[in-house]
Amino acid sequence: MKIYFACSITGGREDEAIYRHIVQALLDDGHEVPTAANAGISNNTAGFEPDMDPREVYSRDIGWIDDSDTLIAEVSTPSHGVGYEIGYALEHQKPVLCIFRQGARVSKMILGNTKPGLQIADYASEEEAIQDVRNFLANLS
Could you tell me where the DSSP H helices lie in the chain? Predict the structure, then answer.
């Protein structure tokens, strides 16, 4: 399955370790994750490119969402870009999972969203986050 993994980049990188572990689990399970470099996985050829032109980033990322089967977003750290990606994916009928650390302050625009296709889960541990992701993907099949 092709999965767009969304996570905070300019909003803060405090949760990079969990991003990396979730994406590595997805890759280990045989999924394709075009945004793996954004999670700190450096073997992705597309790469995290902080000095790219904003229009290039937008075009590339929208193309990746369009080509993906689903979007998974780690939303513990607020990010305008991630919020936009979630809304875009939902408007284009992509199933979306938003996961966050228990106790994190998550936007009410995410938590209160009742749009079909959106699932939300909080987690207490890295293992629980990965299991939430795997359960979400299993239910898509």
Answer: 16-28, 54-67, 80-91, 108-111, 126-140
